[in-house]
């Protein structure tokens, strides 16, 4: 019986010693294991959503009503939801290939070729009429399209209506009539179609002039000339029309959206396929008052020197437009998100928040977009990966908060203006 108690006591002592050994030798490993494998905590789910329609939130998982896919959970640790915008996990932004750029102040440089046509100079349009009834004695060898110099003879006409008035004028001159009578007869001769030069010639030579040579009053191209030998003319008959081509007009089609870019810094150059390698400097330009509703273009009229008459009316031409705008806030064009209803950018502040902002666009050229409002110089804008960030901003309601803030600021500004008035 005593032996049995000794065996039991011996087993207890051995068990205690083995427990101590286990505590000494095994506890360090157990502690290390606990440190490297902390207890798992369950991630908090805010809501579920369809990535293709991120603005719609769901309270529970399930199939998407929009697409053939399951709803995706939105975890609380994936991005904050605060008044400043959205915060996205740095690992996720790195996977998106996020790139940013800084808004700067500068000028927008724009270049574009405009289709154009060469036209006659309508400031040099002259209509030649007989101004007196008579007979065509001779027409000079001219036809429509010929170029004439100022003073060139066009046609010889015999005018019978001048004979009586000229005889009266010469009679008054020979009897030393008063100036009043002489001036009255001179006026009759002028109204009958005689030029002042012919009247002075009559006074000087004392010879009745019934035969007159009608000459070109300016240099240009004959655009009408229908007089023939032996024709009878009345005083309202048109003998010829002459249109000038030096300088010549070049009329280009200017898109309405580019009209605001034309300023004193604009450089316009004219070229044509008929004259390869040649360019013509524009002397002056003007945007005409009419607009073409079918093409949504304005007419840009250029005045171009044409001393050698190389530019012919009717030619097609190209106008090279190079212009520089005033100073505006510039951002890369890939930073703009255009929904059709509004344009916006995604900015990043110093704390890493991604903030959507609506902007007003002036113009775009060569990968740069000029803004009228919405950003200030130095703000950082997202240029790559912005669509997924924009989707994230929609999910978290940052855009709606932004619109409410802007509406409040606009209302406050209006109230201040009314108070100032």
TrEMBL record:
Gene3D superfamilies: 2.40.30.170, 2.40.420.20, 6.10.140.730
InterPro entries for this protein: 3HB_CusB (IPR058791), Beta-barrel_RND_2 (IPR058792), BSH_CusB (IPR058790), HMBD (IPR045800), MFP_Cation_Efflux (IPR051909), RND_pump_MFP (IPR006143)
Pfam families attached to this UniProt entry: 3HB_CusB, Beta-barrel_RND_2, BSH_CusB, HMBD
Keywords: Transport
Domain of life: Bacteria
Domain CusB-like beta-barrel: start-end pairs: 247-324
The CusB-like barrel-sandwich hybrid domain, residue ranges: 126-242
Residue ranges of domain Heavy metal binding in the record: 47-74
Domain CusB-like three alpha-helical bundle: 161-210
Family affiliation: Belongs to the membrane fusion protein (MFP) (TC 8.A.1) family.
Protein name (record): Cu(+)/Ag(+) efflux RND transporter periplasmic adaptor subunit CusB
Organism expressing this protein natively: Orbus sasakiae
Gene name as annotated: cusB
């Amino acid at each position: 019986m005593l032996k049995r108690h000794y065996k039991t006591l011996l087993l207890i002592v051995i068990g205690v010693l083995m427990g101590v050994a286990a505590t000494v030798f095994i506890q360090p490993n157990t502690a290390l294991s606990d440190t490297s494998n902390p207890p798992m905590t369950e991630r908090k789910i805010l809501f579920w959503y369809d990535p293709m329609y991120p603005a719609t939130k769901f309270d529970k998982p399930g199939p998407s009503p929009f697409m053939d896919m399951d709803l995706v959970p939105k975890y609380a640790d994936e991005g904050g939801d605060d008044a400043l915008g959205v915060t996205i996990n740095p690992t996720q932004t790195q996977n998106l290939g996020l790139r940013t750029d800084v808004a700067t102040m500068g000028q927008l440089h724009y270049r574009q070729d405009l289709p154009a046509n060469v036209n006659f100079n309508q400031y040099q349009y002259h209509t030649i009429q007989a101004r007196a009834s008579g007979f065509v004695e001779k027409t000079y060898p001219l036809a429509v399209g010929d170029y004439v110099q100022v003073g060139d003879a066009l046609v010889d006409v015999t005018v019978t209506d001048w004979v009586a008035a000229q005889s009266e004028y010469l009679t008054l001159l020979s009897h030393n009539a008063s100036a009043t009578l002489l001036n009255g007869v001179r006026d009759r001769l002028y109204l009958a179609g005689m030029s002042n030069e012919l009247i002075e010639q009559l006074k000087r030579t004392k010879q009745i002039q019934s035969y007159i040579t009608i000459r070109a009053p300016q240099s240009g191209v004959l655009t009408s000339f229908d007089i023939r030998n032996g024709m009878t003319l009345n005083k309202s008959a048109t003998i010829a029309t002459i249109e000038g081509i030096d300088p010549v007009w070049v009329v280009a089609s200017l898109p309405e959206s580019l009209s605001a870019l034309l300023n004193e810094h604009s450089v316009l150059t004219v070229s044509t396929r008929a004259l390869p390698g040649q360019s013509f400097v524009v002397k002056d330009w003007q945007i005409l008052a009419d607009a073409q509703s079918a093409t949504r273009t304005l007419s840009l009229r250029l005045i171009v020197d044409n001393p050698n008459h190389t530019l012919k009316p009717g030619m097609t031409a190209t106008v090279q437009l190079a212009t520089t705008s005033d100073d505006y806030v510039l951002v890369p064009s890939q930073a703009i998100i255009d929904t059709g209803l509004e344009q916006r950018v995604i900015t990043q502040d110093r704390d890493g928040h991604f903030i959507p902002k609506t902007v007003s666009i002036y113009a775009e050229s060569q990968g740069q977009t000029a803004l009228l409002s919405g950003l200030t110089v130095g703000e950082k804008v997202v240029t790559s990966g912005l669509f997924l960030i924009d989707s994230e901003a929609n999910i978290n309601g940052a855009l709606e908060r932004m619109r409410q803030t802007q509406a409040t600021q606009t209302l406050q500004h209006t109230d201040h203006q009314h108070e100032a008035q």
